[in-house]
Amino acid sequence: MTLSTRATELFGVRYPIVQTGMGWVAGARLVAATAEAGGLGILAAATMTYEQLEAQIGEVKARTSQPFGVNLRADQDDFEQRIDLLIREGVKVASFARAPGKAGIRKLKDAGLVCMPTIGMVKHAQKVADWGVDAVIAQGGEGGGHTGSVPTSLLLPGVVDAVGKDIVVLGAGGFSSGRGLVAAMAWGADGIAMGTRFLLTQESTVPDEVKARYLATGVLDTVVTKAVDGYPQRVVRTEFIDHLERSGVFGKLVAAIRHALAFSAMTGTSLLQLLQEGRAMKANSQLTWPQVLMGANAPMYTRATLVDGRMDSGVLPTGQVVGAIDELPTVAELIARIVADAEAALAELAARA
Asked: Which among 94, 76, 81, 161 is positioned nearest to 133, based on CA atoms?
């Protein structure tokens, strides 16, 4: 009972532990394993066609009767159709890298779904709280993939103070253990969300040789770079990353066009739709056209490694916490250990008090 929080109540799960919606990684097997072990698994829909998403939701439901979530892109042309699918299938949580507008949030909430965006700045937490979200994942700069510059130790308590008691707050960036969960709770959070730690489990479908490369990575072996798609992204430093950072504008433009074509074919999104999404992103996020054109780079470079195992031509998104991970447990073993360690840490703190 010591680990019952507002997050466990909101999501309907046993433990305040969330597996994030990592593109190309968070499929039905990993999500269902997390749900069965008592956490909240989130299916990564941004890299799926509508038909693939529908099939993956069906597979999760066939593997578990526990609540789970789906991560969506609010700028996709079939966003409304995907929301309708989540509502129809009884999905518990809709998560976002960027929150949908007020209308999208209201539709989700009216249908009984929990709306949970990820944010990296206090002002963004305040904005989505005003829009009516139920929860936020506050990801500090230690986090993997696209990330900000504020460390979790500063961001998390700042977000908790900014949004008040009406919004459930989860900490992300640097978490992998029960002690980390207790630290997040001490900062005022209701639980933690983890990506890298769940990527490095037995149920993760990432190729074994890629997992081995992650396990060999130290805390200081990651880098935050804009060379992938124009946004700050934390990845493992590799020779390929060094190559991208040395590449000229022409080379990056050619790669961006090639990846846009491939991403269009894989996700069923037409080039016209990609351009329309890019125009909207440019207007809403004050991006440059080169940044918009590079938008498809990240998912395709990531797919090269996390799906195809091609480390010579892909990137390895990761949080700095990768340097503290040296084994591949099952999801059930991982969550059980986190819970046991958290309860032990809480008991020790109580004894000290």
From this structure: 94
| Domain segments of the chain as ranges | 6-206+326-352, 218-317
Q: What is the mean pLDDT of residues 97-123?
A: 94
Q: Note the pTM of the prediction, 2 decimals.
A: 0.90
Neighbours of 306 (CB within 10 A): 24
Residue 304 pLDDT > 70, yes or no? yes
Question: Per residue in 163-179, pLDDT tens?
Answer: 998 999 999 999 999 99
Q: Which two tokens stand for residue 114?
A: 């929990």
Do 120 and 155 meet the contact criterion of CB atoms below 8 Å apart?
yes
Fold of 6-206+326-352: TIM Barrel (3.20.20)
Contact between 86 and 54 (Cβ < 8 Å): no
Res 254: pLDDT: 64
Closest CA relative to residue 99, chosen from 163, 8, 49: 163
Alpha carbons 150 and 140: distance in angstroms, whole number? 6
Does 258 have pLDDT greater than 70? no
Structure tokens at 342: 């958290």
Instruction: Determine the Cα–Cα distance for residues 151 and 174; give it in Å rounded to an integer.
Output: 9
Q: Specify the DSSP class assigned to residue 314.
A: -
Extended strands (E) in 191-258: 191-194, 222-225, 233-236
Q: What is the pLDDT of residues 21-67, one digit of tens each?
A: 999 999 999 999 999 999 999 999 999 999 999 999 999 999 999 99
Distance of CA 221 to the CA centre of its chain: 21
Beta strands in 177-300 (DSSP E): 191-194, 222-225, 233-236
Type of residue numbered 313: S
- Cα 71 to Cα 116: distance, rounded to the nearest angstrom: 9
Best CA proximity match to 117, nearest among 77, 169, 75 = 169
